[in-house]
Design a protein that fits this description.
Number of strands: 13
Strand content: 15-25%
Largest sheet: 11 strands, antiparallel
Shape: elongated
Radius of gyration: 37 Å
Number of helices: 5
């Protein structure tokens, strides 16, 4: 299994633009095919946009909180250095005072001068001690001022951190609420897909607002962000024989892309594959996109690399949301080839 990930913000922003932005096919009336999914798709798109904005604010707050944390740590480190320096100076003063007491025997300075063999030498020693005391007092004053200043800065940083944490908690709660609503909307969209499969009749294309053309290659992966699941040729109780394609584990509503230029030759909404699209490419190859929740193209339409042609889902014989992708030498089942090396030969590594 190979995993391809994007950062959270990029993924959510992509999805915000991706999900059925909501207009029915030209000429459709209020009861025409595809109209039922219009409001659901619009709701999904709106929720994705709200999730994107909330996530962006959340990440911005997180970054600011990290900067505040770094500031507090730097202030604490500086305070520790100042304290260590002050402690060293105190030790020096203690040694000087102890030495002075031993040399002077605890006598007053006047008595020491009268009894000293060399009063001038004694005075020089006293001046050294006094200078050391002045130096230490100055250093202690600087340290105390630094400690007070740093303590104030630490208090400010801590308060800023508390406010940011509260804000992030609020944003996280907002994002959870949006995600819950989004999940409900996704399954409503899937419910409409299941109804179409049961009826064996497609509702019609619900058009996507396409992303700006940004592909410099002729071939792309069928979804942008994914986790590979069941591979070509694998066995299991879900298939009568061997697995005929490559599965991409993605949430319901994920935009599905045409892997290359071609023409839609089949749009079907019944059977084991549920809602599916088959595209014919140059050279006689065909690609299939199955278990969809909705389609965004009609049969006979041309498609280009990276064009959004539908939404992933879990329609048909599916155990969970994913895209089933096949490469075939004919439009029909039973002519599939392994899609992973097929795409690799065209410059797409999954």
């Amino acid at each position: 299994m190979r995993l391809t990930r994007r950062p959270l913000l990029v993924t959510v922003l992509f999805c915000a633009l991706a999900v059925l932005a909501a207009r029915p096919a030209d000429g459709d009336g209020s009861h025409a095919p595809g109209h039922g999914s219009f409001s659901v798709s619009a709701e999904v798109a709106r929720l994705y946009e709200e999730a994107a904005k909330a996530t962006e604010r959340y990440e911005t707050g997180r970054e600011e909180a990290e900067r505040q944390r770094d500031l507090a740590q730097r202030l604490e480190e500086r305070l520790d250095r100042e304290r260590q320096e002050a402690a060293g100076l105190r030790e020096d003063l203690g040694r000087i005072a102890s030495s002075q007491y031993r040399d002077g025997g605890g006598l007053p300075l006047t008595a020491q001068m009268l009894l000293a063999d060399d009063p001038e030498q004694l005075m020089r020693g006293q001046r050294v001690v006094q200078q050391a005391e002045v130096t230490l007092d100055q250093a202690l004053g600087r340290s105390e001022r630094a400690e007070a200043r740093i303590a104030r800065d630490e208090a400010k940083a801590a308060e800023a951190w508390r406010k940011l944490e509260k804000r992030n908690e609020e944003l996280a709660a907002l994002r959870r609420d949006i995600e819950q609503k989004l999940e409900t909307a996704r399954w409503k969209l899937q419910g409409e897909a299941d109804a179409s499969v049961t009826a064996g009749s497609c509702r019609g294309a619900v058009r996507l607002d396409q992303p700006p053309a940004r592909y410099t290659t002729s071939w792309v992966a069928p979804v942008e962000t994914y986790e590979l699941s069941a591979s070509y040729g694998s066995g299991g109780a879900r298939w009568a024989n061997r697995h005929t394609g490559q599965d991409f584990a993605v949430p319901i509503g994920t935009p599905v892309r045409a892997v290359g230029s071609g023409k839609v030759v089949k749009v079907s909404c019944g059977g084991a594959f549920g809602i599916e699209i088959v595209v014919e490419h140059a050279g006689g190859y065909h690609t299939q996109y199955a278990h969809l929740a909705a389609v965004a193209v009609d049969q006979g339409e041309p498609v280009s690399p990276g064009q959004w042609i539908g939404q992933s889902g879990t329609s048909g014989n599916s155990t969970g949301p994913h895209l089933h992708f096949e490469v075939r030498v004919t439009p029909e089942t039973g002519s599939s080839v392994d899609p992973v090396p097929w795409l690799a030969r065209r410059g797409v590594t999954l």
